[in-house]
Amino acid sequence: xxxxxxxxxxxxxxxxxxxxxxxxxxxxxxxxxxxxxxxxxxxxxxxxxxxxxxxxxxxxxxxxxxxxxxxxxxxxxxxxxxxxxxxxxxxxxxxxxxxxxxxxxxxxxxxxxxxxxxxxxxxxxxxxxxxxxxxxxxxxxxxxxxxxxxxxxxxxxxxxxxxxxxxxxxxxxxxxxxxxxxxxxxxxxxxxxxxxxxxxxxxxxxxxxxxxxxxxxxxxxxxxxxxxxxxxxxxxxxxxxxxxxxxxxxxxxxxxxxxxxxx
Length: 263
Description:
By secondary structure, this protein is of the alpha+beta class. The chain has helices spanning 45-52, 59-67, 76-86, 90-94, 98-101, 109-131, 138-149, 186-195, 216-231; strands spanning 156-162, 168-176, 200-206, 235-242, 254-256. A five-stranded mixed sheet has the order 2-1-3-4-5, with helices on both faces. A hairpin with a 5-residue loop joins β1 and β2. α2 (59-67) packs across α3 (76-86), α6 (109-131) runs antiparallel to α7 (138-149) and α8 crosses α9. The longest helix has 23 residues, at 109-131.
C-alpha cells in the first residue's frame, strides 16, 4: 500500500508551521528571512540603538522598532523596508492615509494606528518649536507648516497671522477643497486678520500633487488678496504654496510669491 502524502495537495498552509519554519522539506527549501531574535546584537534594532543611538539606525530599522513583530517569512525589518518601498520614503509614508498602511502584509489596525501616531507626534513637535520663532521669511513659515501640509491629500488654505514684530499670533484654516482645487474669497481670508488685529499675514496652501508651481488661479487669488489687504492697510507678507520633496522634478518644497518677485 503506497504511503499517504505528507499533506493534502490543496492545503496552502500545510507546509508552514506558523512560526517562520517549514514543517516539511519537500523539494527546494524556501528562503526565509532570519528572525530578529536570531540576528547578532549589532544587527538587532533595539540593541543597536542602545549601543550607538537612534541616528545609527536605518529608516527600516526604526520602523521595525515600532512594528516589533513580523510574519512568517518576513521579520519586522523586512516589513519596514516594504513600507518604505511602497511609499517611496518616510515623507511619502507620512502622507499616506492610515487605512493604506494595512495593505502591507503584517500591518494590522494596531500597528497602523501606532505609525500614524508617531508621524503626528513628529509634526506637532516641529510645529511647537517653530511657533516660538519669528516668522519673517518663507523658510520659517514652511518649517512651521510644511511637515503637516505636505502630508495632506486635499488642498487646504490657511492664514498665518503675525504681530508687528512678526511673532506668530494664530494659524487658521480658511477652506478645504478637493485633490486639485480649493476656493476662497478675499473676505474669508482677511476676516481672521481683522478679528485678531494682526499686523500682517501669510497666505499658505498646499498642492497634493507635490508640485508647488502656482496655477493661473493661484496668481489671480494672490492679486485679489493683495488689492483687498492694501485697501485695509494690512500687510500681505507672502503667499506660499507647499509641495513635497518626494516629487522628483521639484527642487524646492514650496513656492514663494514674494521670493519670485510677484508680490
